[in-house]
């Protein structure tokens, strides 16, 4: 665009249009970045983004490795997926916010665990939880009863138990197998046994008693 610098009116018009373009571009960029963080407030279940604390991640690792001590990493993580990958677990994270997915992938690559840590933009309630042995949930009170039902629906046909680790809030109707930490950093460990699995175990026990 050519502007006659000798004409003050044209210079002012050009500056005005340039300002509109710059500020319009900035506003569009800000909306694009911030909108995924605002949208959760309008969903049926309000689940705001709250980073996990270092203590919370340590409690999660204790729950994941409750039968053996976990290896302490020099660099502390606020992502349970990356933290578990550093312990050698193949880990999968689901998140609706695309920017958090991109950032998590970057952090996994930076920590050199990108081959073990995978992140997807997905709704948790559309994931088949039966594919996973250990499930870590960061939820809100209104979400936890739905998690209970989701576990029952997805995992009741499994041939083995499912470990569920709840952070920040416990499941309202299940009794925890173990707990780690206190306050906002507390973590609850649950064991879910499919109904047919429990019946099979009782049947085997009776058979052994008959013998």
UniProtKB/TrEMBL annotation:
GO CC terms in record: mitochondrion
Classification via InterPro entries: FAM173A/B, SAM-dependent_MTases_sf
Family as reported in the entry's similarity comment: Belongs to the ANT/ATPSC lysine N-methyltransferase family.
Transmembrane is among the record's keywords: yes
Species in which this protein is naturally found: Dermatophagoides farinae (American house dust mite)
GO terms, molecular function: protein-lysine N-methyltransferase activity
Membrane spanning residue stretches: 14-39
Gene Ontology biological-process annotations: methylation; regulation of mitochondrial ATP synthesis coupled proton transport
Domain of life: Eukaryota
PANTHER family to which the protein is assigned, alphabetical: FI06469P, METHYLTRANSFERASE DOMAIN-CONTAINING PROTEIN
Keywords, in A-Z order: Membrane, Methyltransferase, S-adenosyl-L-methionine, Transferase, Transmembrane, Transmembrane helix
Protein's name in the database: Methyltransferase-like protein
Keyword Amino-acid biosynthesis (UniProt): no
């Amino acid at each position: 665009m050519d502007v006659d610098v000798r004409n003050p009116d044209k210079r002012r018009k050009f500056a005005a249009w340039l300002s509109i373009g710059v500020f319009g571009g900035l506003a569009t960029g800000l909306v694009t970045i911030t909108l995924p963080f605002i949208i959760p407030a309008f969903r049926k279940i309000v689940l705001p983004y709250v980073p996990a604390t270092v203590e919370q991640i340590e409690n999660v690792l204790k729950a994941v490795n409750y039968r053996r001590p976990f290896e302490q990493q020099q660099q502390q993580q606020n992502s349970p997926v990356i933290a578990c990958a550093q312990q050698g677990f193949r880990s999968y994270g689901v998140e609706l916010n695309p920017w958090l997915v991109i950032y998590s992938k970057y952090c996994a690559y930076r920590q050199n665990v990108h081959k073990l840590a995978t992140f997807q933009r997905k709704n948790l309630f559309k994931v088949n939880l039966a594919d996973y042995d250990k499930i870590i949930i960061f939820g809100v009170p209104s979400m936890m009863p739905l998690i209970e039902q989701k576990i029952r629906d997805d995992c009741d046909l499994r041939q083995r138990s499912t470990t569920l680790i709840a952070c920040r809030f416990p499941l309202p109707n299940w009794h925890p197998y173990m707990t780690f930490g206190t306050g906002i950093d507390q973590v609850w460990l649950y064991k879910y046994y499919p109904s047919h699995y429990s019946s099979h175990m009782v049947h085997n026990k009776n058979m052994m008693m008959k013998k």
